[in-house]
Amino acid sequence: MSAITIRPLAQSDHADWRRLWTAYLTFYETKLPDEVYDITWKRLFTPGEFEPKGFIATLDSKAVGLTHYLYHRSCWSEKNNCYLQDLFADPEVRGKGVGAALIEAVKQEAGKIGVKNVYWMTHETNATARRLYDHVARRTGFIEYDLL
């Protein structure tokens, strides 16, 4: 099996990023206007402590996965927390370590600045992702609420 490569997103990744993020949003039955794609892409390259960041995964020189993450303050710690916001691997590479490698890359990057809490959410019906998450992280038991 070829090695999975994880690296920060580059401006040259725009087409692959858009394809992968669209597939992720489709999985969650979500559509976003082009303006959101545009501002998200811009934010991924805007310097700033709290701006989102991203990694892309490649296998055999093909982009096969992505993640977005961001740091935010916490009242429970001197250091920021890291929220892994989006994680996606192409269906044809699932089970080959792409998701785990992307999670590990975020964990390592956060660790470089002293952040120890990397967390994320998934839908309760996302059994494929939950198998991975149950293997690489602990389930906290918290339930999400929102005011949409």
Task: Describe this entry's structure for a reader.
The protein is an alpha+beta fold and 148 residues long. The protein starts with a strand and ends in a 12-residue tail after the last helix. It has helices spanning 14-27, 34-43, 98-112, 127-136; strands spanning 4-8, 53-59, 62-72, 81-89, 118-119. It contains four helices and five strands. The longest helix is centred in the last third of the chain and has 15 residues, at 98-112. The chain is 33% helix and 23% strand. Strands 1-2-3-4-5 form a five-stranded mixed β-sheet, sandwiched between helices. It comes from Mesorhizobium dulcispinae.
Give a topology summary.
Layout: E1 4-8, H1 14-27, H2 34-43, E2 53-59, E3 62-72, E4 81-89, H3 98-112, E5 118-119, H4 127-136
